[in-house]
Amino acid sequence: MGSSSWEEFFAVHLPPTDFEDNRTLLKEFCDRHDQYGNKIALVTSGGTTVPLEHNTVRFVDNFSAGTRGSASAEYFLEQGYAVIFMHRQKSLEPFTRHFSGQKLFDMLDIQERGPNTTITVKPDSVDVLAPVLSRYKAAHAAGAVLHVAFTSVSEYFWLLRAACECLARLGPRALLYLAAAVSDFYIPKDRVPTHKMQSGSGAPVIQLQLVPKMLAPLVSLWVPAAYVVSFKLETDDSLLVPKARAALDKYKHKMVVANLLQTRHHRVILVSPETTQEIVLTREEVHAVYQKYDDSFILFDLESASSKGEF
Ligand code: PMT
Q1: By residue range, what is the domain housing residue 281?
Q2: Residue 172 and residue 311 in contact, taking contact as beta carbons nearer than 8 Å
Q3: Residues of the chain with pLDDT under 50
Q4: How many angstroms does the Cα of residue 170 sit away from the middle of ligand 1?
Q5: I need a labelling partner for 113 at 20 to 30 A (CA). Which of 41, 100, 151, 182 fits?
Q6: Is 148 in the same domain as 282?
Q7: Candidates 5, 182, 184: which one to mutate for ligand 1, based on the most atoms within 8 Å of Cβ?
Q8: Pocket of ligand 1 (CB under 6 A)
Q9: What's the pTM value of the predicted model, to 2 decimals?
Q10: 13 and 61 share a domain?
């Protein structure tokens, strides 16, 4: 099925209920950092959903846990960027990602003494928790990070455009790092039932439509002076570089980070208009780098592009 235009998409899909609050937060954040001449990185992270009902019980989703985006956000902060972390609700977030699941509770001891109960960090966990906690506290005390969350693909696009509107005035001091796994297909609004689909009506036949590629207006209209890095995810290696290069040719942005689903944690290919650079980490390197940055290793090369004045 064909795709609607991006203008049509915004005309048909209403903004999310918390949109104005988020827009205000984005504007305040960008204005404040712009005033000080700071660089801002917009990091998108996690997957988008496609609701099957307006009162959503069921939805189409994808695999992304937000590992790359949340790890990369930490690295951008460390490199002096203010970071807008635009993430899927309940996906991994910078700093807290290190202690997901039961990890945090396993690091704590409790001494139950009625009203004088105390909770302490186990001595052998202090070295693990302290550096991450310090970086978290420093980033938040400096007002260097703003979190905004989305769930559905339409919420993602509304937030993305609002963030771009605020970032545009920073010109080349804005960097967009679009690591979120954005749905390519959706169900047009007028074909989504209001209430939970009933099994008694039989198995539904669901016709998906193409989502317009937002990279097109983003690069050419919304933030034309920003350094835009998009991602390309494939499962077939032979398609990876050709598709990344085709995206660069089409959208004319600065870089595509190409990765395969199966090997994304230790191999990426950085594709720019002039170069193609594969980065493969050995098991030891993965261990060494991941201890600190997890899979944000590709930023070492974004940094080198930066030092050459590319952004
Ligand atoms: O979260 P993890 O588990 O760590 O996984 C990280 C990752 C594999 C999700 C990440 O490294 C990654 O590859 N993200 C991009 C996945 C993706 O959406 O690829 P794509 O080839 O479908 O899209 C290419 C680009 O087009 C993306 O940068 C996307 O922002 C953009 N896009 C996509 C759809 C759409 N309608 N409009 C867009 O602009």
Answers
A1: 232-305
A2: yes
A3: 1, 293-297, 300-301, 303-311
A4: 24
A5: 100
A6: no
A7: 182
A8: 64-68, 178-182, 184, 211, 213-215, 230-233, 259, 264
A9: 0.93
A10: yes
Q: Whose CA is nearest to atom 10 of ligand 1?
A: 179
- Residue 109 belongs to some domain of the structure: no
How many Cα atoms within 13 Å fall on the side-chain side of residue 88? 26
DSSP 3-state of 150: strand
Say whether both 183 and 250 belong to one domain: no
Q: What is the pLDDT of residues 195-219, one digit of tens each?
A: 999 999 899 999 999 999 999 999 9
Nearest CA owner, ligand 1 atom 16: 181
Return the closest-CA partner of residue 167 out of 218, 93, 229. 218
How many domains does the chain fold into? 2
Distance CA 257, CA 89 (A): 24
Token pair for 149: 């969350």
Nearest-10 Cα torsion for 236, 156, 225, 173? -100
The amino acid present at 2, given as its one-letter code, is: G
